[in-house]
Amino acid sequence: MTNPLLFLLAALTLVAIPGPNHLYITTRSIGEGRRAGVASALGVETGTLVHIGAAAAGLSAVVAASATAFGFLRYAGAAYLVYLAYRTLRSRQDLGEQTLRPQPLHRVYLDGALVNVLNPKVVLFFLAFLPQFVDQDAGAVPLQIAVMGLATALIGLVSDLGYALAAGSIGGWLRARPAFQRRRRHLTGLVYLGLGAAAAFAAPSPRHT
């Protein structure tokens, strides 16, 4: 790995920029509470570990180079987010109520993992970012990618948890307001629909996740 300090600074800078994952975690934490936000953050970074393994094995490059594979991943991710929106918009605590029914934490965790595994922008991120810091002369390129990927995932987890905890605090205040309670199911569903649309139109070019 060339210049580890430069890599860490670049990773910190990129992870600090709010992206779709942050928006997803924030929405979940505001809508369903801090514990749901933390479970989402853990799920998202579990999905990141899958991408790290794929990048180290060279599978990410294959997916990015194949229009069919990239399109499948893109539309599968978009479809899952649309499904989350549908599930949210149908949710009731009791018949006639307009509030969200909290999901079990294991399901929230799985949702976060699947959302990130099916996010084609994460594939592109690792292809664009990590290779810049690989030292070809040092050999063991897959190991270098894995180490840098794990470092990025750890930084991402700290960032995600920060968003989850902060949003959970804000969400507790908002959920005490009847006006927000009446609208949060629809607002959450619209956010998921927006994220799904963004995933569906993801261009096959590197960008931040």
Briefly, what is this?
Keywords: Cell membrane, Membrane, Transmembrane, Transmembrane helix. It is a multi-pass membrane protein. This protein is an all-alpha fold and 209 residues long.
Characterise the protein shown here.
This protein is 78% helix and 0% strand. It contains nine helices and no strands. Helix 3 (34-57) runs parallel beside helix 6. The radius of gyration is 18 Å and the shape is globular. With 209 residues, it is an all-alpha fold. The two termini are 22 Å apart. Pfam families: LysE. Keywords: Cell membrane, Membrane, Transmembrane, Transmembrane helix. The chain crosses the membrane at residues 59-86, 107-129, 141-166, 187-204. This is LysE family translocator.
